[in-house]
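Troubleshooting log. The previous run stalled partway through. Resubmitting the same two chains, unchanged.
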Amino acid sequence: MHNFHYPFHHSFTALCSGVLAILAVSYIGLIAVVMSYAASTIEFSQSVRNDESVVAVLEAEYLSAVAQITNTNYAADGYAVPVAKIFVPAKSTTALR
Amino acid sequence: MRAQFRTRIRFILAFIILVTVLIIARLYFVQIVHGEDYAQKADRQFASGGSGLFDRGSIYFTRKDGMLISAATLQTGFLVALNPQTLQDPETAYRAITTIASSSMSRDVFFAAAAKKSQVYVEVVHHLSDQVGQKLSALHISGVQVLRERWRQYPGATLAAQSIGIVSYGSGDTLAGRTGLEAKYDSVLSRSGDSLYKNFFAELFSNVGNLLVSPKDAHEGDIITTIEPEVQTRLESDLAKVNQKYSSKESGGIIMNPATGAILAIANYPSYDANVLQNVDPVLLGNPLVEHVHEFGSIMKPITMTSSLDAGVITPETTYNDTGCITVNKATICNWDLKPRGVIPMKQIIVQSLNLGAAWIATQLGQDAFRMYFTNLFGQETGIDIKNEGSALLGNLSTTQQVNFDNMSFGQGISVTPIQMIRALGAIANGGVMVQPHLVSAVRLNSGIERKLDWNKKVPVFSATAVRETAEMMTAVVDEKLEGGKAMIPTMSVAAKTGTAQLTDGRGGYYKDRFFHSFTGFFPSYNPKFIILLYTNDPQGVQYASETLDETFLDLVHFLIDYYAVPPDRGLSDHGVATSTSSG
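Second attempt completed without errors. Output:
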């Protein structure tokens, strides 16, 4: 009776083991990536929000400065209203200064 | 062969083991070394019982150069909460906190919270700065949690507050826009809360479609207004001065581009600071320029005039005999000074603001035509993008008594909102076509796409000839009448009209000594870039709008000419150089 030997017996076991190991590592790796991704997302989003807050503070200062300039009484500060205004064509370099 | 294969297998296994070790090392650092930090961050999101940090889109002003400045944004900081069950020494904790956050917390509030032993979470102070929050967090006080929080911040504080609106809890437990643009565009500005912290792989496996093209990104975003912050500041400043000078009940104003309907500034005084809402009168939270109706008085005369010119019942050369007073339906109608002018042309009705002249041309127009024009102009809401827009009170249009039409011809007996008024007057400045006033020009979606809003709904009401003829008459008001002619700008044509209406007494009549002052104008007269509407309600010790609002109007005109560098439209010399004297 012919004793049949599966030609890839040892290779198949090794292959399955390898695949199993790869799957296990991939699973753990996936968890690690997800956790790192989540942590990074939180860090980045918080960083963006912090930057936005800083910008908002600067914008508040800008708007406050505009209000202060608008409400300045120049006459009280010794400045006089111009008695004449001269409109100069835009091609003049003087008008661009 | 087999040995070679075994070697390869071993090599692969060694590689896998190495990767495994690296991953385990990474997990060790994430979970063990930094685990406590991440746990605390997670606690900060869930300990307060909320669904994460408050998130909401921004609202922007648009400067003349196109730069966006935040009108409403988010501020990040910290709050302090107590767990009364684990807080062992409240006195020490209080001292430690107040050492760093000195004036932020009331002692009574802190100890009242600490006494609530049945609770595990009581917030005691909000809106601490990042620096203070970090210092407090580093103290690690038992029973005291220092949690990150975000809140709505309005960098301009009072700037356009009534138009930008507010965010509050209302009657529910969700922060949402309640007034102004915050309410109108709430669906664009509000966030579902998970967008920043979504799990990439969970999203990938559960709904790959949403990951690639999120439906939220198609409607969530920021909104960009047409409000110019420096123009808005100027308008608010000027209105405050008028209101304080004449102790008015309120004063308001709108500056709009008559060709597009884009509102550059819209303000009412008094208003409120959107960052400090604790003691705000709820009446102020609405937008009176959109919600409230007024009898505007003589700034209605240019509309009556244009209607009659458009209908062809009069021409600028038509004359009439002004007798000073007339009796219509047993009611007496008089000019503001009771004086007759004799036979005069149409232009003088606008220049001298003659009630009899307005009544005369309304009679020439006829009730049906008058009704048609005024229904077209005021019969519908403007559709401005602010909630709770008011409707005009046009009951007198449905009557047949001529005295009612005569009164409406000069702005009494007809009540409209300021936004309706500037829209109707804008037709005179825009070739006879009414545009749709609006505050938001575009929505900037989270996907990065900027979606321009369509505000191209235009309603033709007058002919171009009729509006030009009226514009000439209104220009004469500035050149000949305002401040005795000194208000004239030699290099810029400016059209204007004053209005003084008697206030209703609530009993079907009018006060004889209480007034509503209004003022409108646009420039350059024949190709306007700006139209301005101003009013002050019940000013004290002064009768006519030419006394209260002319200075404000002229200040705004000169400011806009300078700020936008509006080129001269007249007074040019042969060499192309214009010189002028100016009242500033």
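Takeaways: Residues 9-73 of chain A form one domain. Helices of chain A lie at 9-71, 93-96.
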